[in-house]
Every structure is written in C-alpha cells, then in structure tokens.
Amino acid sequence: MTAFERSPDGGRGQARDIRVRWALEEVGQPYHVRLVSFSEMKQPAHLAVNPFGQIPTYEEGDLCLFESGSIVFHIAERHAGLLPEDANARARAITWMFAALNTVEPPILEFVTVVILERDATWHDQRLPLVEDRIRKRLAELSRCLGDADWLDGAFSVGDLVMVGVLRRLNRSGLLDEFPNLAAYVARAEARPAFKRAFEAQLAVATAASNG
Amino acid sequence: MTAFERSPDGGRGQARDIRVRWALEEVGQPYHVRLVSFSEMKQPAHLAVNPFGQIPTYEEGDLCLFESGSIVFHIAERHAGLLPEDANARARAITWMFAALNTVEPPILEFVTVVILERDATWHDQRLPLVEDRIRKRLAELSRCLGDADWLDGAFSVGDLVMVGVLRRLNRSGLLDEFPNLAAYVARAEARPAFKRAFEAQLAVATAASNG
C-alpha cells in the first residue's frame, strides 16, 4: 500500500492510509508500505494506480485498488473479523460504511475546506458556524442511533472502522465532545490494539520524516 | 423502497432513488415504491429505517437498508448484470463506486450547497468559482482516465451506474460539457433502456404529485 511520505497532519492519524492499516491490523495481515511524496502522487506512475492522485493505494498480486473505502472493504471481504457472517447483518455493516463515507463525511470535508483552504477568505468567520451546524445535525442523528451501544450494529465491524475513521477528522474541532456517546465510541475504537498498532506505525513514518 | 412524495427537482432524476430504481431495472427485478413526505421522513417510523431521515430506503423481507450506494451494491451482489465475475474486475468495479461517492461527489455536494443553501450569502459569487474549480479538477482526472472508452473498466458495471448517478447532478451546471468524453459517457448511460425506465418511473411520480 502507499502512504504520504510527509503527512499534512504530522502523523496524527488523519491521512486515510490509517483506515487501511487499521483494517489490516484487525484481520492480522502483514503489509508493506511504500511512501510517496506530493510530487510523485501527481506523476504518471502513481496516476496509473489512482487516477485522482491520492493515497492510499493497494496492490495485491495483479490487483491494484484505490479509495480507502474500497480497499478496507476488499480486506474485510477476504479475511475474517470485519464483516458478520449473517447475510442481513453483513448488509447492514456495509450500509454503515456507505453512510460514513457518503452522508457523514461530506459535511466534514466541507469543514476541512473552510478551516484549511478558505482560512483567509473574507467569509471564513461567517461560514464556519454554518458548516459546523451541518455536521452537528449528522452527529445528533448518529448519536441518537448509537444510544448506549458499544458499536453501530452488534459486534465491531467494517462499518464502525470506517465511521470512526471519518469521525476522527473532528478530533481537534471540539464538535465530538458535544455528543458524549460519540466521543466515547471513538475512544473505544482507538483503544483497540489493532488501531493502536496502525496509529503507531503511521506516526513512526512522520517521526522518521521529521528527523530525516 | 422509498422515494420523495414531492421531489425537490420535480422528478428530473436527481433524487437518489433514481440510482436504486436504475439498478433494479438493470438486473430486471420488480420493485414497489412507497412515497414519503418531507415531514414523514423526520418521523420515528422512517428514522427507524434511516437514522439520517433520507430517502431512499430499501426493504427486502426482514432486511432494511439505507444509503443509495449500499442498496445499489446489495442489488449488484445478489443479481447478475452489475458486477463482473472475475474477482479482480469485481474489486475494481467496487472501487469506482467508492470513488464516485467519496472522491467525485463531495465537491459536487459543496456545489449544491453553494447554489441552493448559500444562494443569498454575501460570499456566493466569490465562492462559486472556487467550488467549480474543485469539481473541474476531479472531472479532468476522470476524463483522462476514461479516455475514449465506453465505460470505466470494461463492461458497464455498478461503478459506472453510481458514477453516472453522481455526474448527473451537474447536468444543468454546464461543467460536464467542458469534458466532451464525460458528457458522452453520461449520455451513453442515459440511453440505456434500464435508465430510461427508471427515469420515466421517477418522473411519473412527480407528474402525479404536481397534478394531485
């Protein structure tokens, strides 16, 4: 798989390769990471694997995949531990994965846009609370649905892994703390040994880069 | 499945139930549509099926699903016609589905936000071209990858269905026309008999609502 040579977040587990590392750790599969620089990501060799010039990408024999959601799902399909065996429970776990990526993450990506790309825009201060309110709406719905359960639908699944990966983008925003059961849900996931190994491995890359 | 009783777009095929209708038409499965009003969507009965209060939802025996991406994938897994049999080609088709929902659609959702929700904001005129440029970047990458092929990876698949569903949100923006091969790709998909049946069925609901 590929990951940032120098992650914009300094290895605090925001770059999307964390989701793939975590999935591989959950199912106990070893992996090799190839680091790519920002300029390499826009070169033909990388674009041949990911036409959008992003990380992570994933190679397994002849197969090349991109999109963290797709890679995580591929891993979950091939190895036990991330998808329930019951067909209906499996479909529901997949549904949560899509909900994370297509309903919960889009307003969070808008938040990242306003905080980073539009930091100096004249409308930054006015627009930020609007975007935060759109996120709060989704968090309130998710919070009500989770209730006091440990995970979204029975046992921990790929749906939780992707949802937590999305929610963690809000770690430093304070928004998660407004929903104590969601903050506890993310903390519960971060306490999993597989997550810790993935996080440490990603942080080690950033530490090596900053020392290099 | 559920759909809007009165679609905000007047039935021009933007509401996400079109993606589910289209998938069901491609695999030749009959379906029953239950229309829900905006107020019903936020009531406990609907929230029990979709915690985010959106359409479409999907019921099949004991199974209740939400998220158009998840429902379309569920249909593609259970019926022949939308996923290749070869394992690697199948994984790539799934990758395109995720790319559509998590890489191409987010800036398009920002566009919808700026055009509709922030129509009267003081920053509307300044921000619109920024968002359009983010979309153009993704469209340029997709256009280069598609080249002169008919579909994204060999035969038409669930990846094309979801990607076209996403790109069609730009139908009236003029942005697609800047990339002739993408405009032709969408037109090619819209010419499929299954799409036409899905579109007509959705339009019929809107026509009935406006006459009712």
Write the layout of secondary structure elements.
2 copies of one chain form a homodimer.
Chain A: E1 2-4, H1 17-26, E2 34-36, H2 38-41, H3 44-47, E3 57-60, E4 63-66, H4 68-78, H5 87-117, H6 124-146, H7 158-167, H8 180-190, H9 193-211
Domain GST C-terminal (chains A, B): 86-209
Keywords (chains A, B): Transferase
Pfam family, one (chains A, B): GST_C_2
Tell me, rounded to a whole number, the average pLDDT of chain A.
Answer: 94
Q: Please describe the biggest sheet of chain A, giving its number of strands, its sense, and whether it closes into a barrel.
A: 2 strands, parallel
Low-pLDDT ranges of chain A:
none
Termini gap of chain A: 22 Å
Order of helices and strands of chain A: EHEHHEEHHHHHH
Percentage of β-strand residues of chain A: 5-15%
CATH class of the largest domain in chain A: Mainly Alpha
Structure annotation, total helices of chain A: 9
Going across the major beta sheet of chain A, what is the strand order? Answer: 1-2
Backbone structural class of chain A: mainly alpha
Number of domains of chain A: 2
Which CATH architecture of the largest domain in chain A is right? Answer: Up-down Bundle
What is the global morphology of chain A?
globular
User: What would you report as the Rg of chain A, rounded to the nearest angstrom?
Assistant: 17 Å
Write structural notes for this entry.
2 copies of one chain form a homodimer. The first copy, chain A, has 212 residues and is mainly α. Chain A folds into 2 domains: 2-81 and 194-211, 3-Layer(aba) Sandwich (Glutaredoxin); 87-192, Up-down Bundle (Glutathione S-transferase Yfyf (Class Pi), Chain A, domain 2). Helices cover 58% and strands 7% of the residues of chain A. The first copy, chain A, has a two-stranded parallel ribbon. In chain A, strands 3-4 form a two-stranded antiparallel sheet. The first copy, chain A, is globular, with a radius of gyration of 17 Å.
